[in-house]
Amino acid sequence: MSASSSSQPDTKSKRKPHVIITIGMAGAGKSTFVQRINSYLHSQNPPQPPYILNLDPAVAHLPFEANIDIRDTVNYKEVMKQMDHSDKRYNLGPNGGILTALNLFTTKFDQVLDLVEKRAETVDYIILDTPGQIEIFTWSASGAIITDAVASSFPTVVAYIIDTPRTTAPATFMSNMLYACSIMYKTKLPFILVFNKTDAQPHNFALEWMQDFEAFQLALASHSGSRDSEGEPTYMNSLMNSMSLVLDEFYKHLKAVGVSSMTGNGIKEFFEAVEESRETYISEYLPELERARAARDQSLQDAKEDSMNRLMKDLAVDRARNPDTAKEDRWASDEEDEDADEGLDIDIIDRSEDLRAGQYIDVTRMRRDNDNINWPRPG
Ligand SMILES: Nc1nc2c(ncn2[C@@H]2O[C@H](COP(=O)(O)OP(=O)(O)OP(=O)(O)O)[C@@H](O)[C@H]2O)c(=O)[nH]1
């Protein structure tokens, strides 16, 4: 149990669960991280099993059993094979298939939210594991709809998983930070940089670069390729220098933790950062959400009034011109409206009653034994 949740036992059951959206480049260790935080929460006293949503339709094996799994709802390989009316294939590649599968799933996200809301009284954490192809979730309309839907219902934090050993070169580090920065400004949600795989590469260098602008510039200058044949800083080097100034501002708005999803190191600190992000969500995200909602409602209302006024004006002109046809005006029947409302024939499955729900595999042991993690999926 995290420090702060143990200090508020009376209010804990009344608190809304915290949503953790895990995002990261392919191979950064998202799934291993979700497995690790799942096992950490199970090992608390009392256990705090999270509610897990797998949003990656293409993942072959998961080291945990999700409560809601997109693969139960949409088969992305089938989606890729779908034909259009003229019997021509859409020719969707794997990424198109994943995106279309996510879009289809999103059309039913209200059902997902209903299921999650029902569990809200009994869980403390809701975890979203997103597709390995980071851009499919972060830059698609579906990703935004899902993110906005959960964030407007529950306190939410984005956990951006970074492959620390692959981020030691200044240029890679900065590209990663710029990517994180773009996601943070897009979602406007509290954000935690999770430097993963610290068992293989400690993340002190990253913290130093984030805290000390000059240390990063020094690393940049000493990196090969930073000067051209005449000894002048390369264009790339100058560009990175300027961009690192932009990032300096960004670093002030986020937390960074180092974890090893393999050994479990740093997971407690991660949950402390999640707890702190709750305050940011309440003090910064919620007021912004309320403001955006009020502005949207107002502009919808304005647009409605405007089109109603124009309609009434047109009707008045029309009736004046054609007094006889005005008698034949009628509105579409309710039945016709209902027909237009019919949705897609797909359903969301909640596996919480399954015997396996919430179970997880110790990845470390499993991988050492070269075991197979292909969970049989109920038909
Ligand atoms: N040493 C070390 N390896 C790790 C750690 N976390 C994950 N890995 C390894 O990193 C690789 C990728 O891990 P995954 O969890 O599959 O990464 P992912 O981001 O979900 O990958 P995609 O499914 O491609 O999105 C695997 O070989 C993991 O064993 C860690 O903390 N330490």
Automatic annotation (TrEMBL):
CDD domains reported for this sequence: GPN1
GO MF term list: GTP binding; GTPase activity
Composition-biased stretches (Basic and acidic residues): 318-333
Primary location group: cytoplasm
UniProt keyword list: Cytoplasm, GTP-binding, Hydrolase, Nucleotide-binding, Phosphoprotein
Pfam families with a match to the protein in the record: ATP_bind_1
Enzyme Commission number(s) from the entry: 3.6.5.-
Keyword Phosphoprotein: yes
InterPro entries for this protein: Gpn, Gpn1/Npa3/XAB1, P-loop_NTPase
Skewed-composition ranges (Acidic residues): 334-346
Subunit structure, as described in the record: Binds to RNA polymerase II.
Function noted in UniProt: Small GTPase required for proper nuclear import of RNA polymerase II (RNAPII). May act at an RNAP assembly step prior to nuclear import.
Protein name: GPN-loop GTPase
